[in-house]
Automatic annotation (TrEMBL):
Similarity comment: Belongs to the NucS endonuclease family.
Keywords associated with the record: Cytoplasm, DNA-binding, Endonuclease, Hydrolase, Nuclease
Record protein name field: Endonuclease NucS
Ranges in a coiled coil: none
Provenance organism: Microbacterium yannicii
Domain of life per record: Bacteria
Ranges for domain Endonuclease NucS N-terminal PH-like: 2-103
Principal location listed in the UniProt entry: cytoplasm
Subcellular location: Cytoplasm
UniProt-listed Pfam families: NucS_C (PF01939), NucS_N (PF21003)
Entry-linked InterPro entries: Endonuclease_NucS, NucS_C, NucS_N, NucS_N_sf, tRNA_endonuc-like_dom_sf
Length: 231
């Protein structure tokens, strides 16, 4: 992972166009190829980003940009959509790289873990004739919450959240891109399942071809799983 603090401006072109004027920001270039642009605020959410599969090319600025003080251009292009993120670097204040190694993934607890377990026992919530392949299906970028099979033999990857937002959709998108490369799993479709799904997440999910399912936690708890119980 490369961490760069720089004075920069950022332009995103593609399905949406967006501009970030010149300011000091943190640029995070991850090992999976993604680039995230952060400010010193807004909690964990980046101001803009490009998700994999994508490539980063460092370019020498043209004469006009160089005259304006630009040192180099970072051009990040998405391999499938062609969307592009252009970062104009004016000054580098910090630049370090770190090898983080493989991450074991998020271990969930509380309601979210219960939702995953209950949904694994009641996969008919996702669709008729659907069967469970595995919980916490391992991938190189983390475990998929549930991997299912539909009656036609296709694969369904399910991301389970308590509250579903844009970050959860992005996470599932990365899983789908990776799983779709496996001929034993393809074709792979996605389901974003949560107790509550924000409107922006629903819009993004629809754009990505991901189906949203709202889960009734209390109702699911009231259905017996068939497992032995004391009471």
């Amino acid at each position: 992972m490369r961490l760069v603090i720089a004075r920069c401006s950022v332009d995103y072109t593609g399905r949406l166009n967006a501009h970030l004027p010149l300011a000091t920001r943190l640029l995070v270039h991850k090992g999976d190829g993604s680039l995230l642009v952060h400010s010193d605020g807004g909690s964990y959410k980046p101001l803009n980003w490009m998700s994999p599969p994508c490539r980063l090319d460092v370019e020498i600025p043209d004469a006009e940009s160089a005259a304006a003080g630009v040192l180099e251009h970072w051009r990040v292009t998405h391999a499938k959509s062609g969307d592009a993120l252009l970062v104009r670097i004016y000054e580098v204040l910090h630049d370090t790289s770190h090898e983080l190694g493989l991450d074991p993934g998020l271990r969930k607890d509380g309601v979210e873990a219960d939702l995953q377990r209950l949904l694994a026992e009641q996969v008919d919530v996702i669709g008729d004739g659907v069967t469970l392949v595995r919980r916490e299906y391992p991938t190189a970028i983390g475990p998929v919450d549930l991997l299912l099979r539909d009656p036609a033999g296709g694969t369904i990857a399910v991301e389970v959240k308590r509250r579903g937002d844009i970050d959860g959709v992005e996470q599932l998108t990365r899983y789908l891109e990776l799983l779709g490369r496996d001929p034993h799993l393809a074709p792979v479709t996605g389901v974003f399942a949560a107790q509550e799904i924000k409107p922006q997440a629903k819009v993004l999910a629809a754009d990505r071809g991901i189906r949203c399912v709202t889960l009734d936690y209390e109702g699911m708890k009231g259905i017996e799983s068939g497992a032995p119980r004391l009471f």
